[in-house]
Amino acid sequence: MNEFGQKGEVPLSERLSVSPEEASALTGIGLTSIREAISAGKLRAKKHGRRTIILRDDLRVWLETLPDARKPIVESPA
Predict the structure, then answer these.
(1) Are 19 and 51 contacting, i.e. CB atoms less than 8 angstroms apart?
(2) What are the average pLDDT values for consecutive 10-residue runs of the chain, which has 78 residues?
(3) Contact 20, 52 (CB under 8 A)
(4) Strand, helix or coil for residue 51
(5) Amino acid 22: pLDDT
(6) HSE (side-chain half, CA atoms, 13 Å) at 26
(7) What is the pTM of this model?
(8) Hey, CA dihedral for 21, 52, 43, 11, is it positive or negative?
(9) How many CA atoms are closer than 13 Å to the CA of 10, on its beta-carbon side?
(10) 13 near 32, Cβ under 8 Å?
C-alpha cells in the first residue's frame, strides 16, 4: 500500500495469499492438480468475488499432507 492506500506491487514472499496460478508456480505442481485439490476439498481456498485465493498456510498444510515419495519396504517371504 502506498501513502494513499492504493494497492502496489507486494513481493510474493510477503503476500498472505496466492492465486491458483501462483500456487502452481511456487510449488511446481500443475495448475490442473491445484484446481482438482481445491474442488475435492483437499486444498482450502477462499473466494473474493470471482477470484480464488489460497492462504499461504493452507498451501503449506496441503503440501505436508501429500504422501511421501519413498516407497514402503516390502519384505519378501523367505
Answers:
(1) yes
(2) 64 91 96 98 97 97 93 73
(3) yes
(4) strand
(5) 95
(6) 18
(7) 0.77
(8) positive
(9) 10
(10) no
- 3-state secondary structure at position 63: helix
Question: Cα–Cα distance between 12 and 25 in angstroms, integer?
Answer: 11
- The pLDDT, as a whole number, for residue 49 is 96
DSSP state of 41: T
Quickly tell me which residue has 499432507 as its cell.
65
d(CA 31, CA 63): 14
Scanning the structure block, which residue is given the C-alpha cell 498456510? 57
Distance between CA atoms of residues 78 and 74, nearest Å: 12
Integer angstrom CA distances of residue 43 from 1, 2, 27 = 29, 32, 13
The separation between CA 52 and the C-alpha centre of its own chain, rounded to angstroms, equals 11
CB atoms closer than 10 angstroms to residue 52: 18
